[in-house]
Amino acid sequence: MNLTLTNAASPKIAIVGAGALGCYYGARLARAGENVHFLMRGDLATVRKRGLTVSVPTETFHLPPETLHTAATPGEIGPCDLVIIALKTTANASFRELITPLLHDGTAILTLQNGLGSDEELAAIFGAEHILGGICFICVNRLAPGEISCTSTGALSLGEFQRPATERLRAIAEKFTRAGVKTTVSDNLIELRWRKLVWNVPFNGLSIAAGGITTDKIMADPVLENEAAALMREIAAAAAAHGCAIPESFVQKQLDTTRPMGAYKPSSLIDYLAKREVEVESIWGEPMRRAKARNVPTPRLEMLHALLHALT
């Protein structure tokens, strides 16, 4: 496969998983003039009537419904040049059904999902040469159908699956950059995934395990803050055993950047409070299993994984 972005000047882009994350990035790209098609379910009628509204710290922008491409089924969208997956990993069993109608021979598939395992799942179904991954360091929530609030725009890091950065990856990164998203490319996607877990494992997990609390309450409690730091170091040790070095300074930076977030609800807490399925296996289970495979002890991660299974 030629690893370039098909129709690079004006690629047809599908957003699969049009929740907070998918709508935010999709709206950014659409506002910048990209040909974006949103696959929607529950919010479809509202968005077709009212459009999409996105709030960020510096502005609020609105995309009227007549400017948006929305669809209830992937067949309505048809083959695309780039498919962006923003589904929860609990919906991975739907990959074939949702993605196959969106593909042609040169389609790039970019998954923005949390945790570990989705890259490999997608590669097994659609071929490794099609797969790219993105790690989103962002605070974004869906307030209501068609209403997205982003309190910290953060950054997006992109990588190819089991390959260094390509022309295709850089072309996609440039699309996000022009849309106002701070975007970088990496030669090491799996290291990016481990680094994201350094934050996701403690804060998504402890927010649920400690009784449904926001990140500011975790950081205000010395016991919980210490537990978060210890979980981070377990993830860093597991990552190191897989050839991904994460320095102590990175751990400290995650703690420091969490303090000013305020009363932020991590995505897993939002799912838990809404009684939706939580991404327990991709965020906690798969890292735990990969640590065990390299004989890295992760007692805190194991306890948190078991507790989250019991609670969710």
UniProtKB/TrEMBL annotation:
GO MF term list: 2-dehydropantoate 2-reductase activity
Domain Ketopantoate reductase C-terminal span(s) in chain numbering: 188-311
Coiled coil: none
A GO CC term assigned to this protein in UniProt: cytoplasm
Reactions mediated catalytically: (R)-pantoate + NADP(+) = 2-dehydropantoate + NADPH + H(+)
Pathway the protein acts in: Cofactor biosynthesis; (R)-pantothenate biosynthesis; (R)-pantoate from 3-methyl-2-oxobutanoate: step 2/2
All residue ranges annotated as the Ketopantoate reductase N-terminal domain in the record: 13-162
Enzyme class: oxidoreductase
Transmembrane segments: none
GO BP term, pick one: pantothenate biosynthetic process
Superkingdom classification of source: Bacteria
Keywords, ordered alphabetically: NADP, Oxidoreductase, Pantothenate biosynthesis
Documented EC number(s): 1.1.1.169
Family: Belongs to the ketopantoate reductase family.
Function (record text): Catalyzes the NADPH-dependent reduction of ketopantoate into pantoic acid.
Protein name: 2-dehydropantoate 2-reductase
Lineage of the organism: Bacteria, Pseudomonadati, Verrucomicrobiota, Opitutia, Opitutales
